[in-house]
Amino acid sequence: MSREDAERVIGEFDGDGDGTLGFGDFVRMVDGGDGKEFDGDLRRAFEMFEEDKGEGCITPRGLQRMLVRLGDRKSLDECTAMIRPFDLDGDGVLDFPEFQRMMN
């Protein structure tokens, strides 16, 4: 996802107008819809966190990069710790099914 696309999405869901996507804003972004729309929104959200477009996973570094863009600085160790509880296969990254499970 390009920087412009990420900024557009953030602008659409930024509830308080501070230029960042807080957790509540993020939940609103992926919540609701009728399955197909929800899956599409969830897929777009997932792609925002991919370090390399089309990589198919969220790495700790990709998570860190996107959190910085959203105004929330975390260390690489903190990002690794955030991924760990949802990393069902233990490979150190989140694939889309793991991300779906985390968001549900």
TrEMBL record:
GO terms for molecular function: calcium ion binding. Residues 1-36, 74-104 form the EF-hand domain. It comes from the Eukaryota. The keyword Cell cycle does not apply. Keywords: Calcium, Metal-binding, Repeat. The keyword Repeat applies. Signal peptide: none annotated. It holds the Pfam family EF-hand_8. InterPro entries: EF-hand-dom_pair, EF_Hand_1_Ca_BS, EF_hand_dom, EF_hand_pair_protein_CML-like. PANTHER family: EF-HAND CALCIUM-BINDING DOMAIN CONTAINING PROTEIN. This is EF-hand domain-containing protein. It comes from Linum tenue.
